[in-house]
Amino acid sequence: MMRQQIAAANWKMNLTYAQAEDLLDNLLQDSHTFQPHQSVVLAVPFPYLSLAKSKVTGKANFFVAAQNCYTQKSGAYTGETSAEMLQSMGIEFVIIGHSERREYFNETNAILAEKVNMALTYSLTPIFCCGEPLQIREAGTQNSYVAAQLEESLFQLSVEQLKKIVIAYEPIWAIGTGKTATADQAQEMHAHLRKTLADQYGQDVADTISILYGGSVKGSNAKDIFSRPDVDGGLVGGASLVAADFGQIIDALK
Ligand code: PEP
What we know:
This protein is an alpha/beta fold and about 250 residues long. The chain has one domain (about 5-250): Alpha-Beta Barrel (TIM Barrel), CATH 3.20.20.70. Helix content is about 40%, strand content about 15%. It is built from twelve helices and eight strands. It has helices at about 15-30, 50-55, 85-90, 100-105, 110-120, 135-140, 140-155, 160, 185-200, 205, 220-225, 245-250, and strands at about 5-10, 40-45, 60-65, 95, 125-130, 165-170, 210-215, 235. The protein has an eight-stranded parallel barrel with strand order 1-2-3-4-5-6-7-8, surrounded by five helices. Helix 3 (about 85-90) links the parallel strand 3 (about 60-65) and strand 4 (about 95). The chain is globular. The two termini are about 15 Å apart.
């Protein structure tokens, strides 16, 4: 079985409504030949979810994601968005634990475990982000650092739940810096992550989990990175804001 291969766009806090509409129109007008195991996921800002959802309706292989959701089901949490709200509007995916959320909004591995649980309760596919900062990479302890992120945020899940997760490995030193991990560095970490999952859940389960690479993926380097056996596509920030660039990244899926 071919694992699901995913090109995911993370728009972050960018674009006006009109710009978002243009980008969606440009992205969707290009014709890509998709195989059934290939998907495009567009993580747009909350106010544009409805717009994105209506634009992708009828486009097989295209899905919409939120960039975050809250730990609680509902209630007096002004400004937050629940997993149930996302489900109720037909959203299929949610990014959980992006490094910017961890850094600027103090999201810990324990908080992220709650968010993953909440997303799964409402049938959203979490795109769970992990990845080490530069000083950890320089100290050479990235493998244990990233394994701990999985253990503390995902290992509460049953086998059936874990199978619904997508993982994105995003080394922080490569995000928005133009400094991409080499395809070898990505493959090495992805293999380590898969082994970490296999040790806990079994090899058969680990072999079904899509692991995306994120960090300065561009049209020019996507093919090389995605070609590695344990790399199942990418989570893309900057280059996802330009239709032609993201189109090239979609076409680099294996
Ligand atoms: C990201 O933030 O998910 C990301 C990978 O950003 P960029 O592609 O801009 O490095």
